[in-house]
Amino acid sequence: MSDVFNIIESNPLQAILVGNDVELSYQVFGRPIATAPVVVVNHALTGNSNVSGKNGWWKSLIGEKEVIDTEKFTVICFNIPGNGFDGKVENSIDNYKEYSTTVIAALFWEGLEKIGVNQLFAVIGGSLGGGIAWEMGFLKPKAIQFIIPIATNYKATDWLIGNVLVQDQILNNSIRPIHDARLHAMLLYRTPHSLQTKFLAEEKEGLFQVESWLLHHGNKLEERFLLSSYKLMNHLLKTIGQSITENDLLAFAVETKAVIHQIAINSDYFFIPEENRKTHQKLKMLNDKIQYSEIDSIHGHDAFLIEYEQLNTILKPIFTIQTN
Protein backbone atom coordinates (compact mmCIF):
# COMPACT_ATOMS: atom_id res chain seq x y z
CA MET A 1 0.00 0.00 0.00
CA SER A 2 1.60 3.25 -1.14
CA ASP A 3 0.50 5.43 1.78
CA VAL A 4 0.88 2.95 4.62
CA PHE A 5 3.15 5.49 6.36
CA ASN A 6 0.00 7.47 7.14
CA ILE A 7 -1.04 4.90 9.74
CA ILE A 8 -1.62 6.57 13.11
CA GLU A 9 1.26 5.41 15.30
CA SER A 10 -0.03 6.71 18.63
CA ASN A 11 -3.61 6.68 19.81
CA PRO A 12 -4.07 9.42 22.40
CA LEU A 13 -7.35 9.82 24.19
CA GLN A 14 -9.19 12.75 22.63
CA ALA A 15 -12.40 14.43 23.77
CA ILE A 16 -15.22 16.60 22.41
CA LEU A 17 -18.35 18.04 23.96
CA VAL A 18 -21.67 16.59 22.82
CA GLY A 19 -25.26 16.80 23.98
CA ASN A 20 -25.75 18.93 27.06
CA ASP A 21 -22.02 19.47 27.71
CA VAL A 22 -21.23 15.76 27.94
CA GLU A 23 -17.54 15.02 27.45
CA LEU A 24 -17.18 12.23 24.89
CA SER A 25 -13.70 10.73 24.76
CA TYR A 26 -12.42 8.49 21.98
CA GLN A 27 -9.40 6.96 20.28
CA VAL A 28 -8.59 6.59 16.60
CA PHE A 29 -6.59 3.66 15.24
CA GLY A 30 -5.21 2.99 11.78
CA ARG A 31 -5.66 5.43 8.93
CA PRO A 32 -6.40 9.09 9.66
CA ILE A 33 -10.00 10.24 9.42
CA ALA A 34 -11.10 11.03 5.83
CA THR A 35 -8.45 8.75 4.28
CA ALA A 36 -10.12 5.33 4.59
CA PRO A 37 -13.42 3.57 5.33
CA VAL A 38 -14.49 4.09 8.93
CA VAL A 39 -15.23 1.29 11.38
CA VAL A 40 -16.79 2.23 14.72
CA VAL A 41 -16.20 -0.24 17.54
CA ASN A 42 -18.50 -0.07 20.57
CA HIS A 43 -17.10 -1.44 23.80
CA ALA A 44 -18.88 -3.77 26.22
CA LEU A 45 -19.82 -3.24 29.88
CA THR A 46 -16.35 -3.09 31.45
CA GLY A 47 -14.54 -2.18 28.23
CA ASN A 48 -13.16 1.10 26.90
CA SER A 49 -11.83 2.79 23.79
CA ASN A 50 -8.47 1.00 23.82
CA VAL A 51 -9.37 -1.71 21.30
CA SER A 52 -6.06 -2.20 19.48
CA GLY A 53 -2.32 -2.15 20.05
CA LYS A 54 -0.24 -3.79 22.79
CA ASN A 55 -2.90 -3.51 25.49
CA GLY A 56 -5.94 -3.44 23.25
CA TRP A 57 -8.75 -5.68 24.50
CA TRP A 58 -9.68 -6.67 20.92
CA LYS A 59 -6.14 -6.71 19.50
CA SER A 60 -6.67 -10.22 18.09
CA LEU A 61 -9.31 -8.72 15.83
CA ILE A 62 -8.14 -5.13 15.21
CA GLY A 63 -4.63 -4.15 14.16
CA GLU A 64 -2.12 -4.25 11.34
CA LYS A 65 -2.75 -7.36 9.19
CA GLU A 66 -5.62 -8.42 11.48
CA VAL A 67 -9.16 -8.98 10.18
CA ILE A 68 -10.05 -5.34 10.82
CA ASP A 69 -6.81 -4.16 9.29
CA THR A 70 -5.63 -0.78 10.55
CA GLU A 71 -3.63 -0.38 7.34
CA LYS A 72 -6.93 -0.28 5.44
CA PHE A 73 -9.45 1.21 7.85
CA THR A 74 -9.94 4.11 10.21
CA VAL A 75 -11.09 2.57 13.48
CA ILE A 76 -12.86 4.83 15.98
CA CYS A 77 -13.94 3.80 19.46
CA PHE A 78 -15.82 6.10 21.82
CA ASN A 79 -15.93 5.66 25.56
CA ILE A 80 -19.46 5.50 26.86
CA PRO A 81 -19.64 8.73 28.91
CA GLY A 82 -19.14 7.88 32.55
CA ASN A 83 -17.20 4.65 32.00
CA GLY A 84 -14.26 6.13 33.93
CA PHE A 85 -11.56 5.40 31.34
CA ASP A 86 -10.52 9.06 31.18
CA GLY A 87 -9.71 8.94 34.89
CA LYS A 88 -11.75 12.06 35.58
CA VAL A 89 -14.00 11.54 38.58
CA GLU A 90 -15.85 14.72 37.67
CA ASN A 91 -17.08 13.00 34.50
CA SER A 92 -18.83 10.25 36.45
CA ILE A 93 -22.59 10.03 35.99
CA ASP A 94 -24.73 9.77 39.11
CA ASN A 95 -28.14 10.08 37.45
CA TYR A 96 -27.51 6.83 35.59
CA LYS A 97 -31.15 5.83 35.26
CA GLU A 98 -31.77 8.83 33.01
CA TYR A 99 -29.49 7.34 30.33
CA SER A 100 -30.28 4.70 27.71
CA THR A 101 -28.56 3.02 24.80
CA THR A 102 -30.59 5.25 22.47
CA VAL A 103 -29.14 8.33 24.20
CA ILE A 104 -25.60 6.88 23.97
CA ALA A 105 -26.05 6.06 20.27
CA ALA A 106 -27.21 9.61 19.58
CA LEU A 107 -24.16 11.00 21.41
CA PHE A 108 -21.90 8.74 19.34
CA TRP A 109 -23.48 10.01 16.11
CA GLU A 110 -23.06 13.61 17.25
CA GLY A 111 -19.45 12.89 18.08
CA LEU A 112 -18.85 11.37 14.66
CA GLU A 113 -20.36 14.37 12.92
CA LYS A 114 -18.16 16.73 14.94
CA ILE A 115 -15.02 14.92 13.81
CA GLY A 116 -16.17 14.91 10.20
CA VAL A 117 -17.66 11.42 9.81
CA ASN A 118 -21.17 10.98 8.39
CA GLN A 119 -20.98 7.53 6.78
CA LEU A 120 -19.64 4.31 8.28
CA PHE A 121 -18.30 1.24 6.60
CA ALA A 122 -19.22 -0.73 9.70
CA VAL A 123 -20.29 -0.49 13.30
CA ILE A 124 -19.44 -3.49 15.44
CA GLY A 125 -19.69 -4.35 19.11
CA GLY A 126 -20.23 -7.18 21.53
CA SER A 127 -22.84 -7.42 24.28
CA LEU A 128 -23.73 -3.86 25.38
CA GLY A 129 -21.61 -2.52 22.52
CA GLY A 130 -23.62 -4.59 20.06
CA GLY A 131 -26.85 -3.24 21.51
CA ILE A 132 -25.58 0.29 20.89
CA ALA A 133 -24.67 -0.78 17.33
CA TRP A 134 -28.33 -1.74 16.78
CA GLU A 135 -29.40 1.63 18.19
CA MET A 136 -27.02 3.51 15.89
CA GLY A 137 -28.59 1.67 12.97
CA PHE A 138 -32.11 2.57 14.07
CA LEU A 139 -31.15 6.25 14.33
CA LYS A 140 -29.48 6.42 10.90
CA PRO A 141 -30.62 3.44 8.81
CA LYS A 142 -28.94 4.67 5.62
CA ALA A 143 -25.59 5.79 7.04
CA ILE A 144 -23.95 2.41 7.74
CA GLN A 145 -22.82 -0.24 5.25
CA PHE A 146 -22.46 -3.11 7.75
CA ILE A 147 -24.06 -3.45 11.20
CA ILE A 148 -22.43 -6.26 13.17
CA PRO A 149 -23.99 -6.89 16.60
CA ILE A 150 -22.26 -9.72 18.47
CA ALA A 151 -23.59 -11.62 21.51
CA THR A 152 -26.53 -9.24 21.87
CA ASN A 153 -29.96 -8.50 20.40
CA TYR A 154 -31.94 -5.49 19.30
CA LYS A 155 -34.07 -5.52 22.46
CA ALA A 156 -33.51 -6.53 26.07
CA THR A 157 -35.45 -9.61 27.18
CA ASP A 158 -37.16 -10.18 30.53
CA TRP A 159 -34.29 -12.48 31.51
CA LEU A 160 -31.76 -9.72 30.88
CA ILE A 161 -33.89 -7.08 32.62
CA GLY A 162 -34.26 -9.36 35.64
CA ASN A 163 -30.52 -9.89 35.92
CA VAL A 164 -29.89 -6.17 35.59
CA LEU A 165 -32.18 -5.67 38.58
CA VAL A 166 -30.22 -8.21 40.65
CA GLN A 167 -26.95 -6.49 39.71
CA ASP A 168 -28.41 -3.07 40.56
CA GLN A 169 -29.52 -4.32 43.98
CA ILE A 170 -26.04 -5.66 44.69
CA LEU A 171 -24.43 -2.42 43.51
CA ASN A 172 -26.66 -0.33 45.75
CA ASN A 173 -26.75 -2.52 48.85
CA SER A 174 -23.58 -4.58 49.18
CA ILE A 175 -20.67 -3.64 51.44
CA ARG A 176 -18.35 -4.42 48.49
CA PRO A 177 -20.67 -3.58 45.60
CA ILE A 178 -18.34 -3.86 42.58
CA HIS A 179 -16.63 -6.97 43.91
CA ASP A 180 -19.86 -8.79 44.73
CA ALA A 181 -21.72 -7.75 41.58
CA ARG A 182 -18.82 -9.02 39.49
CA LEU A 183 -19.01 -12.46 41.13
CA HIS A 184 -22.66 -12.76 40.11
CA ALA A 185 -22.01 -11.38 36.63
CA MET A 186 -19.19 -13.82 35.86
CA LEU A 187 -21.57 -16.73 36.39
CA LEU A 188 -23.85 -15.22 33.74
CA TYR A 189 -21.00 -14.67 31.30
CA ARG A 190 -19.86 -18.30 31.41
CA THR A 191 -21.66 -21.67 31.54
CA PRO A 192 -21.71 -24.66 33.92
CA HIS A 193 -19.88 -26.70 31.26
CA SER A 194 -17.21 -24.04 30.85
CA LEU A 195 -16.51 -23.80 34.58
CA GLN A 196 -16.55 -27.54 35.13
CA THR A 197 -14.11 -28.06 32.26
CA LYS A 198 -11.83 -25.30 33.56
CA PHE A 199 -11.76 -26.17 37.28
CA LEU A 200 -12.82 -29.83 37.68
CA ALA A 201 -14.09 -29.08 41.21
CA GLU A 202 -10.48 -28.89 42.40
CA GLU A 203 -9.67 -27.40 45.78
CA LYS A 204 -6.52 -25.62 46.91
CA GLU A 205 -5.65 -23.99 50.22
CA GLY A 206 -9.20 -24.23 51.52
CA LEU A 207 -10.89 -22.77 48.44
CA PHE A 208 -12.31 -24.38 45.36
CA GLN A 209 -10.51 -23.14 42.26
CA VAL A 210 -13.77 -21.72 40.89
CA GLU A 211 -14.12 -19.69 44.10
CA SER A 212 -10.58 -18.33 43.77
CA TRP A 213 -11.26 -17.42 40.15
CA LEU A 214 -14.46 -15.56 40.98
CA LEU A 215 -12.87 -13.72 43.90
CA HIS A 216 -9.93 -12.74 41.68
CA HIS A 217 -12.28 -11.22 39.10
CA GLY A 218 -14.15 -9.38 41.82
CA ASN A 219 -10.94 -7.93 43.24
CA LYS A 220 -9.57 -7.05 39.82
CA LEU A 221 -12.64 -5.07 38.75
CA GLU A 222 -12.91 -3.40 42.16
CA GLU A 223 -9.38 -2.05 41.69
CA ARG A 224 -9.99 -0.46 38.29
CA PHE A 225 -13.67 0.43 38.00
CA LEU A 226 -15.78 3.20 39.52
CA LEU A 227 -19.01 2.28 41.27
CA SER A 228 -20.86 4.99 39.34
CA SER A 229 -19.54 3.49 36.08
CA TYR A 230 -20.70 -0.02 36.92
CA LYS A 231 -24.16 1.23 37.89
CA LEU A 232 -24.49 3.09 34.59
CA MET A 233 -23.21 0.29 32.36
CA ASN A 234 -25.37 -2.31 34.05
CA HIS A 235 -28.44 -0.08 33.73
CA LEU A 236 -27.80 0.51 30.02
CA LEU A 237 -28.17 -3.21 29.32
CA LYS A 238 -31.87 -3.21 30.16
CA THR A 239 -32.51 -0.16 27.98
CA ILE A 240 -31.40 -1.83 24.74
CA GLY A 241 -34.22 -1.33 22.26
CA GLN A 242 -36.61 -0.17 24.98
CA SER A 243 -38.48 2.13 22.59
CA ILE A 244 -38.34 -0.25 19.59
CA THR A 245 -41.45 -2.29 18.80
CA GLU A 246 -41.54 -5.27 16.48
CA ASN A 247 -43.20 -3.04 13.86
CA ASP A 248 -40.31 -0.58 14.23
CA LEU A 249 -37.85 -3.42 13.67
CA LEU A 250 -39.65 -4.54 10.52
CA ALA A 251 -39.84 -0.97 9.20
CA PHE A 252 -36.11 -0.65 9.82
CA ALA A 253 -35.47 -3.85 7.86
CA VAL A 254 -37.21 -2.32 4.85
CA GLU A 255 -35.61 1.13 5.14
CA THR A 256 -31.99 0.33 5.98
CA LYS A 257 -29.29 0.08 3.36
CA ALA A 258 -27.02 -1.80 5.75
CA VAL A 259 -26.05 -5.44 5.63
CA ILE A 260 -26.93 -6.66 9.13
CA HIS A 261 -24.79 -9.57 10.25
CA GLN A 262 -25.93 -10.93 13.60
CA ILE A 263 -23.40 -13.07 15.43
CA ALA A 264 -24.74 -15.14 18.31
CA ILE A 265 -23.12 -17.70 20.61
CA ASN A 266 -24.78 -21.09 20.86
CA SER A 267 -24.17 -21.34 24.63
CA ASP A 268 -24.93 -17.71 25.57
CA TYR A 269 -27.03 -17.50 28.77
CA PHE A 270 -27.19 -13.71 28.68
CA PHE A 271 -28.39 -13.00 25.14
CA ILE A 272 -29.74 -16.41 24.24
CA PRO A 273 -29.30 -17.58 20.62
CA GLU A 274 -32.97 -18.54 20.26
CA GLU A 275 -33.92 -14.86 20.53
CA ASN A 276 -31.33 -13.93 17.92
CA ARG A 277 -32.67 -16.58 15.55
CA LYS A 278 -36.19 -15.17 15.97
CA THR A 279 -34.93 -11.68 15.14
CA HIS A 280 -33.08 -13.02 12.12
CA GLN A 281 -36.16 -14.79 10.75
CA LYS A 282 -38.29 -11.65 11.13
CA LEU A 283 -35.73 -9.49 9.34
CA LYS A 284 -35.01 -12.05 6.64
CA MET A 285 -38.64 -11.99 5.50
CA LEU A 286 -38.23 -8.36 4.46
CA ASN A 287 -34.53 -7.96 3.68
CA ASP A 288 -32.39 -10.50 1.84
CA LYS A 289 -29.17 -8.83 3.01
CA ILE A 290 -29.65 -10.07 6.58
CA GLN A 291 -26.94 -12.52 7.66
CA TYR A 292 -26.60 -14.72 10.72
CA SER A 293 -23.76 -16.73 12.26
CA GLU A 294 -23.25 -18.59 15.52
CA ILE A 295 -20.05 -19.14 17.41
CA ASP A 296 -19.84 -22.70 18.70
CA SER A 297 -18.43 -22.59 22.23
CA ILE A 298 -18.82 -24.01 25.72
CA HIS A 299 -17.88 -20.63 27.20
CA GLY A 300 -21.19 -18.79 26.95
CA HIS A 301 -21.51 -15.03 26.59
CA ASP A 302 -17.78 -14.36 27.00
CA ALA A 303 -17.02 -16.43 23.91
CA PHE A 304 -16.92 -13.23 21.84
CA LEU A 305 -13.76 -12.40 23.81
CA ILE A 306 -12.39 -15.95 23.73
CA GLU A 307 -13.17 -17.65 20.41
CA TYR A 308 -11.09 -15.34 18.21
CA GLU A 309 -10.46 -17.86 15.44
CA GLN A 310 -14.18 -18.43 14.88
CA LEU A 311 -14.99 -14.73 15.11
CA ASN A 312 -12.21 -13.83 12.69
CA THR A 313 -13.42 -16.45 10.22
CA ILE A 314 -16.95 -15.04 10.33
CA LEU A 315 -15.80 -11.43 9.94
CA LYS A 316 -13.05 -11.87 7.34
CA PRO A 317 -15.36 -11.79 4.26
CA ILE A 318 -16.83 -8.47 5.43
CA PHE A 319 -13.52 -6.71 6.01
CA THR A 320 -11.63 -8.11 3.02
CA ILE A 321 -12.04 -5.11 0.77
CA GLN A 322 -9.82 -3.31 -1.72
CA THR A 323 -8.76 0.19 -0.77
CA ASN A 324 -6.78 2.64 -2.82
Global shape = globular
The CATH architecture assignment of the largest domain turns out to be 3-Layer(aba) Sandwich
Helix percent reads 25-40%
Q: In angstroms, what is the radius of gyration?
A: 19 Å
For this structure, the quaternary state is single chain
Structure description:
The chain starts with 13 loop residues before the first strand and ends in a 5-residue tail after the last helix. It folds into 2 domains: 4-156 and 239-319, Rossmann fold; 158-237, Rna Polymerase Sigma Factor, Chain: A. It has helices at residues 101-114, 128-139, 158-173, 177-189, 192-199, 209-224, 227-239, 246-255, 273-284, 308-319, and strands at residues 14-18, 22-30, 38-42, 62-63, 68-69, 74-78, 120-126, 144-150, 203-204, 207-208, 259-265, 291-295. Residues 1-5 have low confidence and may be disordered. Strand 1 and strand 2 (22-30) form a beta hairpin. The chain is globular, with a radius of gyration of 19 Å. It has 324 residues and is an alpha/beta fold. Helix 1 (101-114) packs across helix 2 and helix 3 (158-173) runs antiparallel to helix 4. The chain is built from 10 helices and 12 strands. 39% of the residues lie in helices and 18% in strands. The strands form 3 sheets. Strands 1-2-6-3-7-8-11-12 form an 8-stranded mixed beta sheet, with helices on both faces. One of its GO terms (molecular function) is homoserine O-acetyltransferase activity. This is Alpha/beta fold hydrolase. Keywords: Hydrolase, Transferase. Pfam families: Abhydrolase_1 (PF00561). InterPro entries: AB_hydrolase_1, AB_hydrolase_fold, HAT_MetX-like.
